[in-house]
TrEMBL record:
Keyword Transferase assigned: yes
Molecular-function GO term, any one: pyridoxal phosphate binding
Assigned keywords, A-Z: Aminotransferase, Pyridoxal phosphate, Transferase
Keyword Glycoprotein assigned: no
Listed name of the protein: AtaP4 protein
Cofactor(s) it depends on: pyridoxal 5'-phosphate
Source organism per UniProt: Streptomyces zinciresistens K42
Family: Belongs to the DegT/DnrJ/EryC1 family. L-glutamine:2-deoxy-scyllo-inosose/scyllo-inosose aminotransferase subfamily.
Cross-referenced Pfam families: DegT_DnrJ_EryC1
InterPro entries: DegT/StrS_aminotransferase, PyrdxlP-dep_Trfase, PyrdxlP-dep_Trfase_major, PyrdxlP-dep_Trfase_small
GO biological process: polysaccharide biosynthetic process
Length: 367
């Protein structure tokens, strides 16, 4: 089952020789170990992502550096990345946030020029592309979560792929033991195959069964979701007081993780707040809410000393604020739940409610 799922991941996502893990977090942990960086090396990542894009670095003797994101996509800002690099920097991790590809042209250039490893977290972005190239194929290592809410769910699970066999072998050793760990090609690693590195991070076969079942119609399912979300974006186009989520030229949205328009407080009538607009949507039946993914910059793991001494290691996270891009990205940001149950009619009804809310609450757009 495990092997079958891994073959399917290779076929569907175009990733070389993938490995499955028990979670995306485990896959990221294995990625940080596989790159075998000196203790205290810095990993630079976006301030806006799920924490596990960066936090497993804590358990690989590394340190995390949070940098700002771009105000339109919420993705790692190349200029902020470049400014945060120090002699300790060894690695950059990008998340293709909510499914929108990060600025890989600039980011890969920076990593190449500065000799940095690049990890892509594709948990939100299955089947997304940038100028026709699949996300996950730009960097050294790609990891994705197959947790239940992701667009390719296995219940719980993670996928991993590396552009060099040695990184794959080390990741395998990091999270597996016996069985396939004894078959590693590198004799130095294979000598540790009985125990691996002592952690069990492999996927449960039942999760592989779920992952395989969800692979069956993945492409069609994501295409149908994309069509509905594009329809909703067309419905929001030109309305005062709200903007559909930005999709940059060249960006192919595969598995949108979440659909997040942005209410424009500056365009609302005097005395009308973002909350008023949101409540009006909700009262009229649009499943809209404030998004839950927050900033890493205020989380204790990035602001306070780690409470367990044995884990603390070299972990002294650096926050390269101020995070103006993140603030601009989050201002007025709401989320609209669109599920597989929705139809074009539901979407058109949502768009009509937005139009009515804008008519009532926003100042008219200048002609
Ligand atoms: C961007 C991102 N990276 C990593 C993870 C961690 O994956 P998992 O929950 O499978 O451990 C998640 C999960 O929510 C995520 O959204």
């Amino acid at each position: 089952m495990i092997g079958e799922l891994e073959q399917r991941i290779e076929k569907v996502l175009g990733l070389p020789d993938p490995l499955s893990f028990s979670s995306g977090t485990a896959g990221l942990h294995a990625a940080y170990l596989a790159l075998d960086m000196p203790p205290g090396s810095e990993v630079i990542g976006p301030v806006t992502t799920f924490h596990a894009s960066l936090t497993p670095a804590l358990h690989a003797g590394l340190n995390a550096v949070l940098v700002d994101v771009e105000p339109d996509t919420g993705n790692l800002c190349p200029a902020a990345l470049e400014a945060a690099i120090t002699p300790l920097t060894r690695c950059v991790t990008v998340t293709h946030y909510l499914g929108h590809p990060a600025a890989m042209e600039e980011i890969t250039r920076i990593c190449r020029e500065r000799g940095l490893h690049l990890i892509e977290d594709i948990s939100h972005a299955y089947l997304s592309t940038l100028n026709g190239q699949r996300v996950g194929t730009f960097g050294d290592i790609c990891v994705g979560s197959m947790q239940d809410r992701k667009s390719w769910p296995a219940g719980e699970g993670g996928l991993f792929s590396a552009s060099r066999p040695q990184w794959r072998e080390r990741a395998l050793l990091a999270g597996h033991y016996r069985g396939r760990a004894l078959l590693l090609e590198d004799p130095e690693l294979a000598a540790f195959g009985e125990t691996g590195l002592g952690l069990k991070m492999r996927m449960h076969p039942l999760a592989a069964v779920v992952g395989l079942a969800n692979a069956e119609d993945l492409v069609e399912r994501l295409a149908a979701r994309r069509a509905l979300l594009e329809r909703l974006s067309r419905g929001l186009q030109g309305l005062a007081g709200v903007r559909p989520p930005v999709v940059r030229p060249g960006a192919g949205m595969g598995g949108w993780f979440s659909y997040r328009p942005q209410i424009q407080p500056g365009e609302l009538k005097q005395g009308v707040a973002v909350d008023t607009y949101l409540r009006r949507l909700r009262d009229a039946g649009v499943p809209a809410h404030y998004p839950s993914v927050g900033s890493l910059s205020g989380m204790p793991l990035f602001t306070c000393p780690v409470p367990l001494h044995a884990a603390a290691g070299t972990w002294r996270p650096r926050r390269c604020g101020p995070f103006h891009g993140e603030s601009a990205y989050n201002a007025g940001r709401i989320s609209v739940s669109v599920t597989g149950e929705d139809t074009e009619e539901t979407i058109d009804a949502y768009a009509a409610v937005f139009a009515e809310a804008s008519q009532a609450l926003a100042r008219p757009v200048a002609a």
